[in-house]
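Appendix B, Record 12. Input sequence as logged:
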Amino acid sequence: MTRHRYDSATPEAPSIASLPVTAQLLLACAHARLGERESARVRELAAGQIDWDCLLELAGQHAVVALLYQSLRAAAADVAPATVIEQLRAAFHASTQHSLMQTGELLRLAHTLAEAQIPMIALKGPTLATMAYGSLALRSSVDLDILVRKADLERAMALLRSQGYQQLEQLGEAQVDAYIEAQHHFSFVRESLLVELHYELGERYFEVQIDTDQLWEHAAPVALAGHTVSALSYTDQLTTLCIHGLRHCWERLAWVCDIAELLRQERELDWPALLAEQQARGTERLLLLGVYLAHRLLAAPLPAVNRCFGSRSCQQVKSGAG
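Logged structural output:
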C-alpha cells in the first residue's frame, strides 16, 4: 500500500463561516436536538440574507428536510417565511407517514422471516432512526435494507415474492450466479415500498470489504414500535456508515448527520481498541474521516477518540479532508 507523505504545513480546511450563509443555516439546522446556543445561531442565520428556495432545494438533495423543519420551527418560526415553514411542514408529514409505513412493513417482514426460520438484520432505515435520532420522523429513507445470510438468500427471495413483491433485476438463469458474485443485494418493489435484500454489504470491486460474519456475531436487538428487531451493533453501525459514505463520496449531508447523531449518544466505547481493529482491517482512516466530517461540519463530539487526532493517520485524514 502506498504511503503518502504528510506535510505538517498543510493548512486547515476552510471554516464553516467561509461558506455561503444559506449553507451555514442548513448545517446549523442539521441536528436532531438544538441547545440554547445552537438555537440562537439558527435564529441569527435565518434573519440574514437567506436564499430560501436554494435552502429548500439543498435540504431535499441532502435528505435533511425533517431536521431543517424541526430546527426552523423550534428556533426561527417567526423569522423564516411562513411559506417556507408550510412547505417544510407538508414534506415533513409526508416523510413521517412513509417512515411509519416502512416501520410497519419491516416488523411484518421480520416476523414472516422469523416464522420461516430465516435470520435477518435490519440495516439503516427505522432501526438507525431509532438508535441515532430517537425518532422515526427525523430520518427518511427511500428503501428498507435487510441483510440475510447467503445460504438463506434463495428462500428469502422466494418469501418476498410470496408477499407480493416483484424483483427489479431481470436476470436469466445463467446470469444469477454471476450477479450474486459481483453485486451485494437484490431489489424488490411492491407499490410504494422498496426492499433491498442484502447478502453482502458493498460491491466486490470496492477495495474495502465488510466482514458480514462479524456483523452477525455482533448483531443486537433494537426496540422498534413496541417490538424488537435485530440490527447492527453500535460500533458496526458506525463503521459501516463511514464506509458507505466514502463509497458514495459523501454526497449527502444526511450520511454525515447519521454519524454525528450516533456520536452524540455518548456510548462508552473502547476507542483505542476499535481503532486498532480498524487499522488491522485497513479501514481506520475511513472511520476517522467519517468521524472528522461529523465533528467538522456538525460539531459532533469526539469523546475519547479526540486523543487520536494527534496521531499521524488522524493528521493525514484532517489534511485530506481539507
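The chain has 14 helices and seven strands.
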